[in-house]
Design a protein that fits this description.
By secondary structure, this protein is an alpha+beta fold. The chain has one domain: Roll (Archaeosine Trna-guanine Transglycosylase, Chain: A, domain 4), CATH 2.30.130. 16% of the residues lie in helices and 29% in strands. It has 4 helices and 8 strands, in the order βαββααβββββα. The strands form 2 sheets. A 6-stranded mixed sheet has the order 2-5-4-3-1-6. Strands 7-8 form a two-stranded antiparallel ribbon. The chain binds zinc ion (2 copies).
Length: 177
């Protein structure tokens, strides 16, 4: 599945549901499942941000923050110019502060965010990159499967999430078993 790397505390803010829009200087035509990766890089300024409200209030209980790891899976459902974003009452209350909405940038709207029970170590890359071995729906992964037990149904879907399988995936799975 596709993955996007963010500096902390942005990645964990998404994982905990405090941030549903990622802002970028570039856009993409891609829509669909996306893994949220916390970059390994951390600066003094970001470290300071993480212990300052409104950031800190959402991060309590999540320190030490994960770095160099996937922290959530989500669905990238919409990308639009930042000028077109209307902050609705049903959005997280500090959404606007958790992004850079300067003109000329793009807002990436994320839905169906599922935090990983245990962050999955993974090297980050520029732009959208590919990751394997993680369920696009529930975020379980090879060393941290679903509590009720699961196996791979498709390369990015586990058997506990069979309700989300496409017909093509179900047919391919049936043929193998
Ligand atoms: Zn799953
Ligand atoms: Zn699973």
């Amino acid at each position: 599945m596709k993955a996007l790397s963010l500096w902390q505390p942005g990645a964990t803010l998404i994982a905990v549901g405090a941030k549903s829009i990622e802002t970028r200087s570039w856009q993409t035509a891609y829509r669909g499942p996306i893994a949220i990766h916390a970059a390994a890089k951390y600066t003094a300024a970001l470290r300071h941000l993480a212990v300052t409200d409104p950031y800190h209030q959402y991060l309590l209980g999540h320190f030490p923050l994960p770095f160099g790891a996937i922290v959530a899976v989500a669905n990238l459902c919409f990308v639009c110019p930042t000028e077109g974003v209307a902050f609705a009452p049903d959005m997280p209350p500090h959404e606007e502060q958790f992004g850079d909405y300067s003109p000329g940038r793009f807002a990436w709207l994320l839905r169906d965010v599922k935090p990983l029970r245990v962050a999955m170590p993974c090297r980050g890359r520029q732009g959208l990159f590919n990751v394997t071995g993680i369920c696009r729906v529930c975020g379980c992964w090879d060393l941290c499967g679903c509590e009720e037990g699961c196996a791979w149904l498709a390369p990015d879907l586990c058997t506990a999430c069979i309700a989300h399988a496409t017909d093509k995936e179900l047919n391919a799975f049936d043929r193998k078993h």
